[in-house]
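Hi F.,

I've been meaning to write this up properly since the lab meeting, where we talked about keeping a consistent format for the predictions we share between groups. The idea is simple: the sequence comes first, exactly as it goes in, then the structure tokens exactly as they come out, then a line or two of notes. No screenshots and no reformatting. I'm using this chain as the first example so we have something concrete to point to.
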Amino acid sequence: MTDIIEKPCHSETSNNSYATRPNDVSALGVVDFADCEQCSRYPNRWSKIREHISAPAAEFMGAFILCLLGCGGNCQANLSANKNVSASPAGNVVTSNLSWAVGLSLGVWISANYSGGHLNPAVTIAFATVRGFPWKRVPIYILAQFLGALCGAGVAYATYFHAISIVEGGYNIRTVSVTGNLFATYAADYLPSVSAFFAEFTGSAILITGIFMATDKKNGPAPPGVVPVAIFFILLGIGSALGMDTGPALNPTRDLGPRILTAMVGYGSAVFNFRNQYWLWCPILGPIFGMIMAAFFYDAMLYRGSDSITNKPSEEAERHHLHSCAHRDKPRGVAETV
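Output, unedited:
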């Protein structure tokens, strides 16, 4: 079945009705199914299936782009510093931060219209906790984000496989301290565990605050298409100012997906044994708690939208609305019946 329908074009010089032949395109106008109120919104079977999977597919694609460009930027900046790989460095910490910012911006851009552009379990949980996002959709969003991050990091690893092997000293050598940290995040040696958690908590709180700020319709609403650009600058600022201590992760699946990948390709259990399950309490729990706390604070202090739990009307306000506003909205001259 085609995705268009054909309508006859009536001539001004003839009032006779006629049936057009299927191939007589000269006498036919073309209109999309979406423009016709009488036709099904699903022009074929696949379009109906796509309606149910487009949101998780968008989250997968967005997370894939994020980790492909982010991990790829880390690899290019660090591996090219080795003289056996490149005669001169092809990147630095600035290009690495830019890669993550561009990756998140493009990921949000491709997914925002279909899933909301979360790409981050901490963002999804914050929206479910504070903004009424359906909890039943949280598991499938997180699964799609994780798989996208895993696959994106896998493509980046495959792209730089030979350069990684040169830096490591062999195809069968993989160490966390040399190249493993190009994919997952690890706290700096000088940083205590509490400070590592605080760094992730703080950076994640700023990220969700920036997202709420950019999408708040009462806060100088951004024109269509500008929100991904705003998120680009938010992440670039966080990475440039707060990235030295822990990476940063700011996103549980951005860390867990690449971390599992490195465990699969030869880095082994060392990726999980770092600092007594650092992978759990810092890059996973830190962003989740940081975003929930910041989301509550933003909505409690600033946000006026009705979708926030902080703006849920009280019973007294609901009774006042039903008593006063309902009477006010009645047409004048209509007698009230008892």
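Notes:
Confidence is low (pLDDT under 50) at residues 1-28, 333-338.
Residues 306 and 312 are 7 Å apart (CA to CA).

If this format works for you, I'll send the rest the same way.

G.
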